[in-house]
Amino acid sequence: MNKIILKTQLLYSEMGKSEKKVADWLISHPGDNLPMSISELAELCESSESTIVRFARRLGFSGYGELKICVAGEQEKKVVLPTINENDSCFEILEKICNDAYLSFERTKRTIAPENIAAAANLIASAGKTVLIGLGSSASVAQDAANKFLRAGYSAYSYGDTHMQMIAASHMKEGDVLIGVSQSGASKDIVEALKFAKSRGISTICITGTDKSPIMKQSDIVLLTDTEETKHSSLALSSHLSRLVVIDSLCYYLVYRNEENGTGLDEENENNLRSKRVNE
Amino acid sequence: MNKIILKTQLLYSEMGKSEKKVADWLISHPGDNLPMSISELAELCESSESTIVRFARRLGFSGYGELKICVAGEQEKKVVLPTINENDSCFEILEKICNDAYLSFERTKRTIAPENIAAAANLIASAGKTVLIGLGSSASVAQDAANKFLRAGYSAYSYGDTHMQMIAASHMKEGDVLIGVSQSGASKDIVEALKFAKSRGISTICITGTDKSPIMKQSDIVLLTDTEETKHSSLALSSHLSRLVVIDSLCYYLVYRNEENGTGLDEENENNLRSKRVNE
DNA sequence: AAAAACCTGAAATAAATTTTCAGAACGAAA
DNA sequence: TTTCGTTCTGAAAATTTATTTCAGGTTTTT
């Protein structure tokens, strides 16, 4: 996995026409060392020196010199082209999915509002109990989250069927938190449940990958993850992973908070769990 | 092994006093990247620009620029393990978790046997039905996988409680596949279920993060993911993600296989799902 | 259709690298 | 110790390379 090329792909859509020529050249010459000088590269890319400097800056380098050095540093790693096609072996697909996940994480870091994650974590930390709901693959995200939160010492539960979700919502009290997970942000039952909870004074959080979606209106705190349309199919693999890392970061934060109160994942407890092999 | 340093040592005796200062600096700063400019380095070595150029030429480079690039290329990409500490903000934790996930993917790609993924995919593709079992966070991996496999057009089911797992196993037939997910590879109930199935001629696959673990003995095909010990706690966040990307790659492969038979994720079906907002 | 925002490359400027060269340091021979 | 020749060195000049600026062009917005 070549980080420079991945980053190039990540930022490709934000580039101008001429900058894209530079990007294209880089992507199509993965193994190559950069030609020694900026002028040479400018000529190869049919672009200008200034454009190349701008390109390097966009990727986060101080200038062309730094880019050149980093490209040399990434050398031997072979690059995997992004789109999966039907002749790929399973392993090639795995490589592409890992790349895709990396890009999705990068997009998530740019999309999510840091203050909102903090607010969500603090809300969960001080909540009476936390309920997570989602459908389909979002149900397993919700389940995973509940699992981890509970482990970290917080009362958390997840429900994957719409009846149970509504029942759970109706038994929540002020001071509790309801977290709705929905990639589309439009799953009717989830939105309804959040709306119902909100009307009763219960705090609501959503984790979604779609900006300006219905679920956002029903949520006190919005955690917006990778919003890139998935090109392939509704399997939406990498966005699923992005939602998980957001959960994981909340979870870690909560672990540390709880450790301060002495109710966290303490040694003894964890060793207990491990000896019973419930560590997964 | 750093070739440039070796070469420096080889030629050390032929160098002048000032050139040796450059050599000494290089040898005593093996990990470092070269400072950006030749003047900076000259100052650090208490020497001059021209001496450095001569030094670079002696090692066989065309000049300082080439030396700089090659040093960068030889740099051991020592990865800084981003340990999370208690003063990190939620967003910082998110960044570290993403890094950790990236590393975990890299490890998984190195650990997993490409031919085993292919074998697993083919087994699932030709199986009557596929059952996935796991406990704790592995249960949500299993659930997620079943969800996706089913979506891709394969009969797949997951069970998260030990009774149901055993019942399901006992109703499986030859030609079916049982997939056990277990990070430790030692969860007694999962291992037992696989053993039982295997004894009845059912194909077994395991997805585990622990080499030489009990579950491997009961599995026809082993998918070994990131085996790095998690330093933090048994939350084992990133290894969880690694297991998911393995699932995802199987799943993608199966989608393509099914498309060939015309039973895959076809447009119409997917649009249908989308219009009902069950795309997650 | 006008205005604003943005992208681009030629040229000017700045910075880094390489070369040149005069003198210092060392060694061998007288 | 002196003298000559060789090698090594660094300051400064020359050259190459990188960066910034700016005016003109393009696209987007209003």
Quaternary structure classification: homodimer
Low-pLDDT sequence parts of chain A: none
Mean pLDDT of chain A: 85
Rg over alpha carbons of chain A: 23 Å
Folded structure, characterized:
The structure is a homodimer of 280-residue chains. The first copy, chain A, is of the alpha/beta class. Chain A contains 13 helices and 5 strands. The first copy, chain A, has helices at residues 3-11, 17-28, 38-44, 49-58, 64-74, 90-111, 114-126, 137-151, 162-170, 188-199, 214-217, 237-261, 267-275, and strands spanning 130-133, 156-159, 177-182, 203-208, 221-224. A 5-stranded parallel beta sheet of chain A has the order 2-1-3-4-5, with helices on both faces. In chain A, strand 3, helix 10 (188-199) and strand 4 form a beta-alpha-beta unit. The first copy, chain A, is elongated and about 70 Å long. Chain A starts with a helix and ends in a 5-residue tail after the last helix. The mean pLDDT of chain A is 85. The interface between A and B is large, with 83 and 83 residues. Chain A binds a DNA duplex (30 and 30 nucleotides) through residues 16-19, 36-39, 42, 47-54, 63-65.
